[in-house]
Design a protein that fits this description.
The structure holds 2 protein chains of 2 kinds.
Chain A lengths: L1 E4 L4 E4 H18 L4 H10 L4 H25 L5 H27 L3 H32 L21 E4 L4 E4 H18 L4 H10 L5 H26 L5 H24 L2 H24 L6 E8 L1
Antiparallel strand pairs in A: 1-2, 3-4
Helix pairs in contact in A: 1-2, 1-9, 2-3, 3-8, 3-9, 4-6, 4-8, 5-10, 6-8, 7-8
Chain B lengths: L1 H13 L5 E7 L3 E4 L6 E11 L11 E7 L2 E12 L2 E14 L2 E5 L3 H4 L2 H7 L10 E3 L2 E3 L6 H12 L3 E4 L3 E3 L4 E8 L6 E11 L2 E14 L1 H12 L1 H22 L4
Parallel strand pairs in B: 2-14, 7-10
Antiparallel strand pairs in B: 1-3, 3-12, 4-7, 4-13, 5-6, 6-8, 8-9, 11-12, 13-14
Helix pairs in contact in B: 5-6
The chains are: A mainly alpha, B alpha+beta.
Amino acid sequence: MQIYLPIADLPVNIFLVFGMGLAVGYISGMFGIGGGFLMTPLLIFIGISPAVAVASMASHIVASSFSGAISYWRKNALDLALAMMLLSAGIIGTASGVWLFTTLRAMDQLDLVIGLSYVTLLSIVGALMIYESVRAILRARAGMPATIRRPGSHTWVHRLPFKMRFKRSKIYVSAIPVWGIGYIIGFVGAIMGIGGGFLLVPMLIYFLRVPTATVIGTSMVLTLVTMASATVMHAMTNHLVDVVLALILMVGGVVGAQFGARTGQKMRGERLRLLLGLLVFAVGLRFAYELVVPPDDLFSIRRMGVD
Amino acid sequence: MRRLVLTLLIVMLTGPAAAERLVVSLSSHRVAITSNFIGEELVLFGTVEPDGAKSALRSSYDLIVTVTGPHETLRTRRKQRVLGIWVNVASREFVQTPSYLAVLSNKPINQITSSETLRRLQVGLDNVLLPQRIGPDIADTVRNDPFRLAFVRLQAQQSLYSEISTAVTFLTPTVFRAAIPLPADVPTGNYAINVQLYADGLLVARTNSALEVIKVGFEQYVADAARDHGLLYGLATVLMALFTGWFASVVLKRD
């Protein structure tokens, strides 16, 4: 069944888009991530312009992270104070991301920047995750406890000024790295149409030493608010948020996420991280391939608005 | 002998002159884009009629129908390898060009009339005016300019530009029908239809018609809201997302 998207200006198969939402939702529920880095390329693949895909994805992530955040809230597994601190910088990051998005679109370089950021971010994060999880698996094989090296070890991050105490996460850190991380996530999310969960979770664990118990819930609150503001800002500046597309995706996404979460809970942590790492890395390679291989058509057209 | 020639000349000048008139009708003047719109084919019917009682008709005619969509400004970009990756390096702005262009005829247009006539009347994808912004000037380029060729080719790939030499059928020597294909992502706005009748390579009659492609109902409402009330539209989308997320967490409990 075809349905016409009023902003993307083209008809799509409603079941195909719903199925994509379901599949990506499954993966996102399984790994506790937003799944934007998978969905945006899929949307571009079925013919939706990158700009509309990125802008509409933001609202899809709002839905999935809100449903996630609610269940973590029920389990008391989120640190609101930390989330608020991250957010105060995240919103500024989002605003500058949306601004850069608009500027790059005018300069015809948006596709390139989206492509390059995917390649660098995904391949680096993917490779790190594969490395870390393989080591953990090997250590488990060798009979050693598969723990992440967490406690005690203070780094330069902990010597920065403006220290704050976050009771729920039981950490005492400087506000500077917290703001820095919040800004980066907001900025990257607005440009790439991703929630940034797969970036934020490792950053919180490795830089701020946030305990695993609160990290996912906190990251979801942050994702929720930055993506909600990205939606509003994209709607105001670029007028490219397709509400029909977003609705189909989010309904598929939240349903898929429920089943994904069940599968995820049955799997061992390091296996799960290895799978996610491989997935992230593969998507990164896919984008690299596109940038390096000569395109079928050197020319492309961009609409500048009907007069 | 001389008298005979003179008589013939007089007969040719005053006798039943061939002059014709086109009468056309479109199956629908308004195409509504609804949520299940997947493209449409409109039909233009018409007849060739003698213009005035004394006129006569010729034995065969050719027809070229040009459908021109609303004008828009587009940018054609060219990629080039820079430091190993493919980047858009050059671009050309096409100013106020048709967003949709269909040249429909009963046989290839270069068999209907001379390329000189086609160029003068700006008929066909090779001859239509496609103004580009080149520095401070706005002008059409030569037809084999790489940007112009790429522009026409890409628009044709999207089924927005087409030249179909089988779209017009003569049901009788004077009654014809033309199929106008509108693709699924047809631009909205006003379309001009120009019908040209040729005989022996000469333009003998022309007429105009028009059609309108509009979004209706919900699609129109959403498109207007997104354009005119960006803030409210964004907030509404976020609320919808929050509701969906909340609803999912209530209905399908994760634990």
